[in-house]
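Replying to the earlier thread about multi-chain prediction with a worked example.

Input:
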Amino acid sequence: MPVELDPATDYPLGTRRPDLVRTPSGLPLDRVTLPAARAGELVSPDVRATPETLALQAEVARKAGRAQLADGLERASELASVPDDELLEIYTALRPGRSTPDELEAWAVRLDDLGARRTASFVREAAAVYVERGLAAE
Amino acid sequence: MSDEARSRRFTAREKAPLRREMLVQPWPELGLVASAGPADPEPELVVQGGAVTRLDGRDSDDFDVIDRFLVAHGLDLDVAPEAMALSDERLARMLVDVDVSRGELVRLARGLTPAKLARVVGMLDPVELMMALKKLRARRDPGNQAHVTNLKESPALLAADAAEAARRGFDELETTVGVARYAPLNALALLVGSQTGRPGVMTQCAVEERRNLELAIRGLVTYAETLSVYGTERVFADGDDTPWSKAFLASAYASRGVKVRFTSGTGSEALMGHAEGLSMLYLEARCVSVVRAAGAQGVQNGSISCVALVLSVPGGTRAILAENVLAAWLDLEVASGNDAIASHSAIRKTAKLMGQFLPGTDFVTSGYSVMPRSDNTFGGGNYDADDIDEWLTIQRDWQVDGGIEPVAEGELLRVRERAARAVQATFAELGLPDITEPEVESATVGHSSGDMPDRDRAADVEAADQLLARGVSALDVALALDRRGFDEIAEAIVGMLRQRVAADYLQTSAVIEPDGLVRSAVNDPNTYLGPGTGYRLEGERWELLQALPHVVDPRELGGGEEGAASSAGDGDVAATGTDPSEVVVALGPAFADGVRETISGLAHADVLDAILAGVREAGGSPRLVRVRRSADVAFIGHDGALLSGSGVALGLQSKGTAVIHRAELQPLDNLELFGMSPLYTLESYRAMGRNAAGYALGQRVGPVPTELDNFARAKLIVTTTLLHARETRAIVPGAPAVEVSVARTDASR
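Result:
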């Protein structure tokens, strides 16, 4: 369900549009409370932003005129579904001299598989530049 | 004079703290040039068929990794032709023109190349840069960030300091570790302490990326600013990153709910040996362009750890301010340095600070050390716990909000103890090594970690490892506090977790209010358009920042009982004397009446005894009168002289200022003036009496020896004003002087 956001009236989402925000398990924002935690309804893995919420924040940023921040938050939205270990592995792979173009391509494919389309193309873009600038592993 | 002759003034200055620092001439080839380096490229942008073919002096084939990243993600080619066509002068004028909005400037900046950006801000002088920074700050309200660390990594002290920092109004708190394995414990102490001091304060623990991400995933930290970028490809790679890896990392952090701020700053490329002959400011323009292109909401810049290097070259302070302006112009949140020690000289470092302090930035410092400098494990502490009163006073002096609030000692003791107890309870509940009562007590009242009992550090790091292995999260911390009765702090921590779920603080320049409202450049933008607009320190906030705990109510100041009945010893209207040995001692209107002692605390009765004794021992005959028509010491003395048989009088104000006068002199002239009343003893007054008699009797008189205290005025001018106000209130306009009899001046204390 696409939502038309207006940063002027909808931001901050937590205050003005809590109805749009849920935890990964589907708990509404107003249930992220101490009593809910006491009752065991709120558990640690559930205390994080969902890909959807991050996408909404990307939309806020874009409408506020911040294209690059929006791009970064869209990548964040995609990366929210990437496991922690892999997240750090991809970061390491992107550091200078760590990866061959093929290895970076493999990560791009993996990201595509995880639905992280924009981030995958970001990695492919890096791979091409690394080859030209001598930043890829031999 | 021999060639080896030395001026003692030069040798004295050489010993000043300032001279521990080296100043060097520019050496552009090494990057030791602040701005406008001879090798800096001409601004240039050529677009052919929608592709950038030349950028700042380079063909696309020669673009380095930074150029390529900026072309791919930074430059807005829709606005670039318009923006690049504007002359440097035109853009520079727009930066300081209050009628040109921030929005318009930010729009144009999207199409400007690094060389153009550097060139334009390089045209501004310091005051113009401040004007531009005031206009361009992203968020309306300025703020500040604190450093919270200690040498012993004492959790109780970390929590207490975090609580104090939060209570003092810092929006963000940053800690780090001496020993890497401490990270989870330090992050935990900071989280508990911060939420004790003020709900909503964001925290970070500056550690290696993997550890940092792990802390973030557990909700133990909420922001990171460790992502460094550099202005040349070689240094970027030496920093083991590329713009792509850093941008990826930024998104990775954001995906785990971490507010991301990059770090850059002038001087780093020169320090790391590959400035490529380019000026510091130009390279920083490349850095902040990368930061924006990477999708970061903000940057910590302003030379940061290289500040002393930048200050070694001419124009360094100006270049640092210019780089802050660049970042703000690119629509980035700015945490504007002032954390690393800029100078040994308090004057020099504070002169530098004013560039950010007066216009205000999102975070005036990237870390104000809330503990003493010796406990700052960042190697920083440009301003620290011992400087807080200075900072608060400068805010009050300028009517400027530097983001730190005055708080009473008792309130801080309360907050610090509560935080130390809360972290003690958390440790106990989570099975971490005990925090003892002496630790809580020392953390509450201590000055530094030197006051803290030692802990078993091996046990602490082992427990820290286990904490991570057990997957303990911020929610577990909240529940632990809740079980121990710290439900308010538990609520505050859950409030921070709610913020993680909503992710509003990922927007530009976000800070969190105690009630959970996120304020960022989206909903609280800087709208400054000249006088009367934008953020202004006024109303309740101004009242708060004025109210330093040691400010006193002048109405309640002492100085002798006021409003005593009539002037006890006053008699008839004073006649003109005829005795040639007579010395009139002329008292001010309030002497020994509305005021009972001098500014140095001498009882008026004792002062009179001393003067009279002095006059007599030099052979004079004293006579006391009170001048009622004037509180001015010159007129008191001169009126007395006109009444004196010898034509000589000693005039005496209630605060203790005295003058020896002679009738034929002009009132504002004198024989001797004693203006340093705070320094006088009874012996001084006795000597004045002797001298007055000496003048009266036509003897040779050497001036009364007096000392000079150049700080007396700064110290006592308020008291002087208040005492003098009492004197002037006692004036009876046009009233003649009256006789005063000695016995009646027994002004009791």
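The CA atoms of residues 37 and 43 of chain A lie 7 Å apart.

Feel free to reuse this layout for your own posts.
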